[in-house]
Every structure is written in structure tokens, then in C-alpha cells.
Amino acid sequence: LGFNFPPSMFQLHLQVQHGPLFPFHDVKLRQGSHYNFGRFYPFEYMRRALELGDAVRMDIDDNTKIEDVVAKVTENGIHYDKMHAAMIEKAKRLAKRFPVWKKEDFEYT
To answer: Residue 31 pLDDT more than 90?
Structure first.
């Protein structure tokens, strides 16, 4: 559960993907090309950042860099890099713990 940035079609996208992941997404996760760092923002990170309220208030416009927003949140003790890494590790652990797809399920693909 998290958000993608930059948004498509001028809309911030909330992604909800619950386990078990489809094989395609599972492989992408293990390869490090799913929930990309700097593009995917875990819901828990966003929730904790927003809880900071006025401490992270910024004037935002079309030229504001996401790195500046992340830096402001980090200054206030919420670390994107740590929370993103923890979310990736949790997703990998859950995928390994609850596998439902077997190679033989895809014998004819």
C-alpha cells in the first residue's frame, strides 16, 4: 500500500497490492524493480509524514522537487530511505512465507 510519484495524468495514485503477489510482481520485487525507491512512497511513510502537520508545511508549486519534500520530512525524524527499505523487506518476507504459486501451475505458459 503506497503512492507513486510522479503522478500520471496529474493525479497522485494510491496503489493497493495485497499478497500473494502475482508471479510477475513477485519476480519484479525480488529483482528490485518493483516499489521503486524514489518513486514509490509507502503508505506508512506518508501517514507519519502528514502527522507532523505544520512542522513539515511547505509552499509547494509545480517546480518543487520531491527530494526537497523528503528532506523536510527527514529533518523532522521520518526517514524515507529506512521506511522504504523496511517495506521492501516485509513484502519479501511475506511473499516467501505465504507462497501460493508453484512452477507447475505455469507448465503451459
So the answer is: yes
